[in-house]
Amino acid sequence: MNSQHYTASFSVAQSPAAVFAAVTNPRGWWSEEIKGPTDRLGAEFNYHYQDIHRARFRITEFVPNTKVVWHVLANEFNFVKDKTEWTGTDVVFEIADRGDGTELRFTHLGLTPTYECYDVCSDAWGHVRARQPPRSDFKRQRDAEPDRRERAGGDQHQARLGQRVG
Q: 8-22: per-residue pLDDT in tens?
């Protein structure tokens, strides 16, 4: 696997089944602006964030408690020249029991530094990862504790997007 693809991993004190359940419910940890099923092989769903990002995904691998892969069927950014940069990439979640907890390895295959969106997108995935609490109920923790952008009193991610556009 190319080490330039965006990759992050972290461990939680939960079972692989609990982590898998959370991964397959991205409305709880990524965005409630998702339409369509996210919990079965072959399912397709749409994501959008304001007028900044829209994407369509298909679940191409679905191995309970082990792995989920989302293939990006279509993508549109409003802040880069090539609005379709993510199209054809894969978002991979690999789950491994480590005895004292579970490791979740997140890789966005195809999201590399050659993409214009790389800095903004890798930062955004980092913010999503930072919101993950050490339990499977991601949404409740996210709602109870605002992410770093909200704590800082401003939307730094939005500011970065504004810098890219301007």
A: 888 899 999 999 999
CATH number at residue 67: 3.30.530.20
Tell me how many domains the chain contains: 1
Flag whether 148 is in a domain: yes
User: Cβ distance 110 to 121 under 8 Å?
Assistant: no
Residue 139 — φ and ψ, nearest 5°? -65, -45
pLDDT < 50 positions in the chain: 1-2, 133-166
Beta strands in the chain (DSSP E): 6-12, 34-35, 44-49, 53-63, 67-77, 90-97, 102-109
Give the Cα separation of 110 and 156 in Å (integer).
25
123 located within any domain: yes
Q: Is the pTM of this model over 0.90?
A: no
Quick one: DSSP state of residue 32?
S
